[in-house]
Known about the structure:
SH3 type barrels, 12% helix, mainly beta, 35% strand, 1 helix, single chain
Amino acid sequence: MPSRGRRSHNFVVCIHNGEYDADLVVGKIYRVVKPERNDAASDLRILDESGEDYLYPKTWFVSVDLPLRARKALVATQ
């Protein structure tokens, strides 16, 4: 179930996708969703290719600082 009320405007680029080839694309920018109460600190909640938010290891991503125009464009597409 999407967590639309918990979305943030932080973005990361995927640098590893483990066995989740259909859910994460290496090199693609993803939106980080605010964590839920019991989420592990070692994970990020990512809005992935399925359109849902799921937990993935933080080590699979690198934070990116995008210009405002790029952030607005990415938010508008999701």
